[in-house]
Each structure stands twice: as C-alpha cells, then as structure tokens.
Design brief:
single chain; 310 residues; ABC transporter involved in vitamin B12 uptake, BtuC; two-stranded antiparallel sheet; 14 helices; 2 strands; 76% helix
Length: 310
C-alpha cells in the first residue's frame, strides 16, 4: 500500500492539490476537536459545580467564578512563588478553596436558600464584585503570567499535527473527572441523598437525611470543582481580577443548556459549547465571538419547539 508521501509524489498536480486540501481540512478538524474538547473539559469542571449547587439548593450563584479564579490564583502563586510542583499545587489550591467555601456558605449562602431569585442575584452579584476587588487587592490588577511546566508545554506529534501535552492532559483529566462524578452521584449513598433532596426535600428530611449538612457539602464540592477548573485551565482562561465576570456568560450558557441538577448532560453540553466556540473563533475570527450565542439561541429555540426536551 502506498504511503501518504508516495501517494502525493506519484499523483498529478490536480490529485496532489486535492490530497493537500484533504490534509489541511483534516488538520483543521483535528485542531478544532482537540482544542474544543480541552476547552470544554475546563468549562465542565467549572460549570458542573454550579449545576450541582443550583440544582440542589436552588440558589442563583452569580459569584461562582470567584471560586474558580481563586483556585487558579492560589495554584499559580504556589508554583511561581513557592516552587510547588504542578501536580501538588492543583490539589492544594482546591483544598484551600473548599475550606474557604464552608464558612462562606454557613454565613452567607445559607440565608439565601429561602430567598427570592432577585434577592439571590443581587446578593451574589455583590459577592462577585467583592471577590473581584479582593483578587485585585491580593494579586494585583495585571493578568497573572501563565507559564506551563516543561513537561506540559512540550508538543506531541499525533501524525496529522502536533499538540501540546497540556491539552491532552486536560482532556484525560476531564474524562477521569466525569467518571468520578458519575460514580459519586450514581453509585454512592451521597449521590442517592442528593437526588432525594433534589426530588423532594421534605420527604428526604422525613426519612432522616440531614439536608442542611448536605447543602454545605454540595456547596463545598461545587466550589472545589470550580477551583479545579480555574487551576487547570489558567492557560485557556487567563487569570485576572475581572475573571468572575469575564467568563460568567460562558459558564451560565453551559448551565442554562444543561438544566439545574442534570449532572449527566453537563459534560456533553460543556464539550459541545467548547467545540462550537473554538470552531467559530478558528473558522471566522472576525465574528467568532458571536457564534456561541447563535448556538445558544438555536438550541433554546429547538427545545421550545419540542416541549418533551425541556
């Protein structure tokens, strides 16, 4: 069988042009899929925490991005200023954010569980502004330098084109995270209690489920997942004080298309959003930023026309 180079060399100019065009198309498609997939994995890690908290506690948390930014900042400070390795800085950053989130939930968010949606939005928007100001005070107003460890910044040849090891690492980590969350919510007592509380809180409390403590754990889990997304995605979503607002829209798009508490579809929606956004910016750079909103409108209109999919 002819190799690709032999095939190109032995064919005529027209055939070579077609082969090169096919190779270019395949290279572009692979780029969009892999970069979109890695971007979608980061969106999944950040947004699935909000899917959990909004689905369980019915709290519209507009400050969710603060925890993602905090996780990313802590991880970079540990790596840049204290020489902590990437593999250790990420879990430390997530653990710190989880510990910080517990008193915040007890002091502030607990009061919002019975509040109206408008009160929730106003309160959490205020917390987002407070968080952005705190990030500016603690880490400065300039974007944080986002250098990668040598091992992750290297490139690997996949045959069609080369890709950063970092992108492949994010995809693999995202797949592991999806599997872990699926097991947590589908095959453990914790997941069963969460599903019971989502379906019928009063009945769950009647059978002995401590919903108040469950809310605290779910909120801490959601914040930890956001911190993980911010920590592993600092190259794709650069860290700056306005991070909680800059990426709030794309996170809310994933959440709105997923549905409150629907963990299983969060991964698919996040990946689809990542691929569509990447494809739009790659294929049409001048209008690429608008493609994701067209996608959102199209999906919402399609769901509106098919009531069974709501």
């Amino acid at each position: 069988m002819e190799t690709l180079r032999e095939c190109v060399a032995t064919r005529g100019a027209g055939a070579r042009g077609e082969i090169f065009a096919a190779m270019a198309f395949l290279s572009s498609l692979t780029f969009i899929l892999l970069y979109g997939l890695s971007y979608g994995m980061v969106l999944f890690a950040i947004s699935v925490g909000l899917v959990v908290t909004m689905g369980l506690m019915r709290v519209v948390n507009m400050a969710h991005g603060v925890f993602a930014a905090l996780g990313g900042y802590i991880a970079l400070v540990l790596m840049n200023d204290h020489g902590v390795g990437f593999a250790l800085a990420i879990p430390i950053a997530c653990a710190i954010v989880v510990l910080v989130s517990v008193p915040i939930e007890r002091l502030l968010f607990k009061r919002l569980y019975t509040a109206s949606e408008l009160d929730q939005v106003l309160m959490t928007i205020g917390l987002a502004f407070l968080g952005a100001a705190s990030l500016n005070l603690l880490f400065g107003s300039d974007p944080m330098p986002s250098t990668l460890p040598k091992a992750l910044s290297a490139n690997v040849d996949l045959g069609i084109r080369t890709f950063q090891v970092y992108r492949i690492f994010v995809v693999v980590l995202g797949a592991v995270l999806m599997a872990a969350l699926w097991l947590l919510f589908e095959a453990t007592d914790f997941g069963a209690r969460i599903r019971a509380a989502v379906d019928n809180r009063r009945m769950a409390e009647a059978v002995g489920v401590n919903v108040d403590r469950l809310f605290m754990l779910a909120f801490a889990l959601g914040c930890g997942l956001a911190a993980l997304g911010g920590a592993i995605g600092y190259v794709m979503l650069p860290l700056e004080p306005m991070y909680p607002f800059k990426y709030l829209t794309i996170i809310l798009i994933v959440v709105s298309l997923t549905g409150f508490g629907n963990i299983r579809s969060a991964a698919g929606i996040a990946i689809a959003v990542g691929i569509v956004d990447t494809a739009g910016r790659f294929l049409a750079p001048s209008i690429g930023g608008f493609v994701i909103y067209i996608f959102l409108i199209a999906v919402m209109a399609w769901r509106g026309a098919m009531p069974g999919l709501r």
